[in-house]
Amino acid sequence: MRFIYCPICGTKLIEKDSWDEGAVPYCPVDDNMYFDTPKPCVVVAVMKGKEILLLKQNYTFKNSKVLVSGYVTNGESVEETVYREVKEETGITVGKIKYLGSDYLASKEIIMLTFMAKFVEGNIKKSPEVDWADWVNIDDAICEMSEDEIGKRVVRKLLKEINYTGEKAYRCDIK
Ligand SMILES: [Zn+2]
Q1: Percent of the chain with pLDDT over 90
Q2: Strand, coil or helix: what is 41?
Q3: Long-range contacts of range 57-64, CB-CB < 8 Å, 24 or more positions apart?
Q4: What is the C-alpha separation between 49 and 61, in angstroms, rounded?
Q5: CA angle 65, 127, 106 (to 5 degrees)
Q6: Ligand 1 centroid to 75 CA: how many Å?
Q7: Ranges of each domain in the chain
Q8: pLDDT greater at residue 168 or residue 19
Q9: Where is the Nudix hydrolase domain (predicted)?
Q10: Is the separation of the CB atoms in 64 and 148 below 8 Å?
Q11: Dist CA 72 CA 90 (whole Å)
């Protein structure tokens, strides 16, 4: 987001030269530069044997299931966000997390950091912001996630990572 006014004190921002970023909006009152950075968010594909953890959140997609996701908050590492979000949304403890690359979502200025993780322990106990959560056979994941393009990309990467050879998993991909 490119700020015009200081989000803390409301002063109109001026431009200040940052030596490698060029002119950056700057509040002379708070002595703060407002870089035009995206919001970091994690997306996690949790595996348990041949199953993957999917959620339904009606405020995101009406007819589609999604992976666990959430914003990175101040004071934590991205890895900590992964453990925390899976725990908060589903009650599950995960381990062996692996980074699968990033995806930029221009409409929301979000940088999505994608991961796979392994189930360690816990029974599904969804948070109130989640409408449904359960383990889904890996073969059905892409079909169940029709509207979630980024989530489906994560699942495809995960299938490659685990050298999954079942053709059935890709049957809902548009050829
Ligand atoms: Zn200010």
Answers
A1: 81
A2: strand
A3: 57/129, 57/130, 57/131, 58/131, 60/148, 61/147, 61/148, 62/147, 63/146, 63/147, 64/144, 64/145, 64/146, 64/147, 64/148
A4: 26
A5: 50
A6: 22
A7: 1-36, 39-164
A8: 168
A9: 37-159
A10: yes
A11: 17
Distance 14 CA to ligand 1 centre (A): 11
pLDDT in tens, 72-105: 999 999 999 999 999 999 999 999 999 999 999 9
Q: Is residue 86 classed as helix, strand or coil in its secondary structure? A: helix
Range 39-164: architecture per CATH: Alpha-Beta Complex (3.90)
Q: Are 39 and 21 contacting, i.e. CB atoms less than 8 angstroms apart?
A: no
Q: Which two tokens stand for residue 138?
A: 């890996």
Ligand 1: centre distance to CA 106 (Å): 27
Q: Which residues surround ligand 1, an ion (CB under 5 A)?
A: 6, 8-9, 11, 27, 29-30
Q: How far is the CA of 150 from the centre of ligand 1 (A)?
A: 36
Q: What is the per-residue pLDDT across 37-86, written as a single tens digit (0 to 9) for each?
A: 999 999 999 999 999 999 998 888 888 999 999 999 999 999 999 999 99
The pLDDT of residue 175 is above 80 = no
Assess whether pLDDT exceeds 90 at residue 118: yes
